[in-house]
Amino acid sequence: MAITQTVDIPINHRITIDVPHEVPAGATIITFTPASSVKKKLTPKEEREYISKNFERLNRETMDILSYQNMFLESED
């Protein structure tokens, strides 16, 4: 039996665990894994900044690729 639950770890890093009755008594392994798939909800301002930064990065990468293609095409002439 495996039960997975996502919880927020408080600043003091203390949590209390109430074990469900379905879990048999005895030795149990508790694993703490960062929930990377759980993302903080962005405010509208943060969302605009995120999009803007990634758009600029994508534009730079695209320009680098086009520049490389042009150099390659010019060297073939």
Short overview:
It is built from one helix and no strands. The protein is mainly α.
Task: Write a structural description.
- It is a single chain.
- By secondary structure, this protein is mostly helical.
- The chain has a domain at 41-76.
- It is 43% helix and 0% strand.
- It has one helix and no strands.
- It has one helix at 44-76.
Secondary structure layout:
Layout: H1 44-76
Q: Which descriptors would you attach to this protein?
A:
mainly alpha; 43% helix; single chain; 77 residues
In one word, what is the shape? elongated
| Share of β-strand residues | under 5%
Question: Approximately how much helix is present in the residues?
Answer: 40-55%
Q: What is the N-to-C order of secondary-structure elements (H for helix, E for strand)?
A: H
Radius of gyration: 25 Å
The residue ranges in which pLDDT falls below 50 over 5 or more consecutive positions are none
Name the average pLDDT.
79
- Please tally the β strands and state the result: 0
Biggest sheet overview: none
Pairing-aware structural class of the strands and helices?
mainly alpha
How far apart the termini lie comes to 67 Å
* Total count of helical runs of at least 4 residues: 1
